[in-house]
């Protein structure tokens, strides 16, 4: 799945780094009506899949014999979260001149991102056990791409960061700068013009709408 807006903007969606919020913002700037409708349908479908992601995880965790279903799930997860190198390869194959495409991404504090994945899956185990499972190479319950380092998505073949990015923690300021880079107009939020509405947020680790992920880490300097 490629998130292309107006044929020249490509968003690299890093798992659990605020990508759903950015995609929703981008869709509002699609000028082609047909493409706009298609993007809305895709967003709707993936919103449903994300809503039941915890159910899928429970199924995969309790039954190792459903490998076909798991392979289908992992295929879509991997394609939905393709890296810059993946997209660039596709664009090079489909277009002799892809220099007009502007790539960008959104990153998140790595420890906050890990807590977000944990709460997103609604696991019955505590956070410490979850981290230990991820460190176990034999653990096959969660697609590795869901927690791989964010640099994997935004680096070139020389392992150097090659595309601009914004930080989800500073989205209200960073988005304005990115919007200028992408050359897209300001899209006012009719509900609250001062702040960008978050999508797919994990309410479990928030207090008064303020992220409180540090509470999940033992001996973290709060």
3D architecture notes:
The protein has helices at residues 19-27, 33-51, 53-62, 67-80, 84-94, 110-121, 127-135, 151-154, 171-182; strands spanning 4-5, 9-12, 102-107, 165-167, 206-207, 210-211. With 222 residues, it is of the alpha/beta class.
Secondary structure layout:
Blueprint: E1 4-5, E2 9-12, H1 19-27, H2 33-51, H3 53-62, H4 67-80, H5 84-94, E3 102-107, H6 110-121, H7 127-135, H8 151-154, E4 165-167, H9 171-182, E5 206-207, E6 210-211
Parallel strand pairs: 2-3, 3-4
Antiparallel strand pairs: 1-2, 5-6
Key terms for this structure?
single chain, 222 residues, alpha/beta, four-stranded mixed sheet, 45% helix, 9% strand
Q: What is the overall number of helices?
A: 9
Q: Care to count the β-strands?
A: 6
Largest sheet: 4 strands, mixed
Radius of gyration over all CA atoms, rounded: 18 Å
Shape: globular
Overall pLDDT level: 79
Helix content: 40-55%
SSE order: EEHHHHHEHHHEHEE
Strand content: 5-15%
Q: Alpha-carbon distance between the termini?
A: 39 Å
Structure class: alpha/beta
């Amino acid at each position: 799945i490629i998130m292309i807006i107006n044929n020249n903007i490509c968003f690299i969606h890093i798992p659990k780094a605020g990508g759903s919020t950015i995609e929703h913002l981008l869709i509002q700037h699609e000028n082609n009506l047909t493409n706009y409708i298609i993007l809305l349908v895709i967003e709707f479908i993936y919103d449903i899949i994300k809503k039941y992601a915890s159910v899928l995880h429970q199924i995969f965790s309790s039954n190792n014999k459903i490998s076909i279903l798991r392979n289908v799930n992992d295929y879509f997860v991997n394609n939905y979260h393709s890296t810059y190198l993946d997209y660039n390869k596709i664009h090079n194959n489909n277009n002799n001149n892809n220099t007009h495409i502007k790539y960008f991404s959104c990153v998140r504090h790595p420890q906050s991102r890990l807590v977000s994945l944990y709460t997103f899956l609604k696991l019955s185990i505590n956070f410490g056990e979850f981290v230990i499972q991820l460190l176990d190479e034999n653990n096959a319950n969660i697609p590795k791409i869901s927690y791989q380092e964010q640099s994997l998505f935004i680096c070139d073949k020389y392992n150097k960061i090659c595309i601009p990015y914004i930080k989800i923690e500073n989205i209200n300021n960073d988005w304005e700068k990115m919007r200028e880079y992408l050359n897209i107009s300001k899209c006012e939020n009719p509900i609250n013009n001062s702040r960008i509405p978050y999508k797919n947020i994990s309410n479990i680790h928030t207090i008064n709408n303020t992220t409180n992920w540090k509470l999940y880490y033992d001996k973290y300097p709060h």
